[in-house]
Design a protein that fits this description.
With 354 residues, the protein is α/β, with parallel strands linked by helices. The protein is built from 10 helices and 14 strands. Helix 2 runs parallel beside helix 10 and helix 5 packs parallel to helix 6. The structure holds beta-D-galactofuranose (GZL).
Length: 354
């Protein structure tokens, strides 16, 4: 193990990363040359394989990582964007192994297909931190730890919010004709959000009209919404598995003459979604076009940095680290949602908050 200076205090890193993000700094080129007196060999080298840049959430997640793994903080970051292809991530991990990085951080595009390449990293003695979505491997010693969201809980919280809303408005469950625009099939976010949806829709007796794949992108979300309208004209609620899909669905619905909103009994189409960090989606909530968003927090940079700091100090990292997330809405009708003993408060987004 290389002898290195103590990494910059964590509080400084957190403040710097927040300043970086709030200042809208453009990303410094990764793998930069010397900017401080830290010797190249003293830097902690982190290889980060990112899913892609499919959504606003992903871009904020990338910036959160780049904002902490800087030379000033004692790191050299090697960043690889996989453009949503698992083969690109596997190639990136192998290049990190060849370059003998100190840590590999992987945001896996899908859950399966990682055993071989993670075994190669383990044989090379390189700790692997999984971030955001999960990996489904035969031996969980193939990764050191995981940090991310409970996607099934996210799905159940949004469905619970809808159920409470429908009850308050006197809308009978069998008047609900709901469609699910899914995320990238096989990703933890899609698996969890779809399972949460399916379980709650059947518990509440809603009519599930369709599941269409939206790949977490706006363009595929538009295609999926068009398909749903063609085959299921009676759909009055659309469950979008991220904000990019929701913005696509709204465009298609409005182009077809529909009004997006929560007044289902007056013919409006309710839209619910996930993430909550997209400025356009937050504006759609403020305008009443999106009724509810399940928060999915992309700011993993400081969390992952503090894990590496612990490992550098010879401490152990907790195997599974879930981030706590809430709910956004255009109405204060439902102040909190409780499910499986977990209560989450609802934050109302208005024009003033934009
Ligand atoms: C969730 C993340 C998902 C986001 C989408 O943690 O994996 O991928 O919800 C993103 O916006 O594309």
């Amino acid at each position: 193990m290389k002898k290195r200076p103590v990494l910059k205090p964590l509080l400084t890193v957190m403040i710097m990363s927040l300043c970086y993000l709030s200042a809208g700094c453009s990303a410094r080129p990764i793998d930069t040359g010397p900017e401080s007196d830290i010797k190249e060999d003293d830097l902690v080298v982190v290889g980060f394989s990112q899913v892609g840049s499919e959504s606003y959430w992903r871009n904020v997640n990338t910036e959160s990582m780049k904002s902490v793994f800087t030379r000033e903080n004692g790191y050299r970051l090697i960043f690889e964007d996989a453009q949503q292809k698992q083969t690109n991530q596997i190639t990136a991990i192998r290049s990190f192994i060849q370059r003998e990085v100190d840590y590999i951080v992987l945001a896996p595009v899908v859950e399966t297909g990682w055993d071989t390449v993670l075994s190669e990293a383990k044989e090379a003695g390189i700790p692997v931190i999984i971030v955001d979505r999960k990996v489904d491997v035969s031996d969980d010693s193939l990764f050191t730890c995981w940090v991310g969201s409970d996607f099934e809980l996210e799905g159940k919280l949004v469905c619970m919010w809808m159920s409470k809303f429908f009850n308050l408005k006197g809308i009978d469950p069998n008047e609900i004709h709901i469609a699910d625009i899914q995320g990238t099939l096989g990703s933890s976010a899609q698996i969890g959000r779809t399972k949460g949806f399916d379980d709650m829709a059947s518990l509440y007796g809603w009519n599930v009209a369709a599941h269409e794949e939206g790949e977490f992108t706006k363009s595929k979300g538009k295609e999926a919404m068009s398909e749903i309208l063609k085959k299921h004209g009676n759909v009055n609620v659309v469950y979008c598995e991220n904000d990019s899909e929701a913005l696509g669905a709204i465009e298609v619905l409005e182009a077809s003459g529909r009004k997006c909103g929560s007044d289902i009994l007056k013919g409006e189409t309710m839209i619910v979604s996930f993430d909550g960090f997209n400025e356009d989606a937050r504006a759609a909530v403020a305008a009443g076009k999106i009724s509810c968003i399940g928060e999915c927090n992309p700011m993993h940079g400081p969390r992952v940095e503090s894990i590496i700091r612990k490992l550098e100090a010879g401490e152990k990292a907790e195997k599974y680290q879930y981030v706590t997330e809430g709910i956004f809405s255009d109405t204060d009708l439902i102040p909190t949602v409780m499910i499986s003993g977990q209560e989450r408060s609802v934050t109302v987004i208005t024009e003033r908050d934009l």
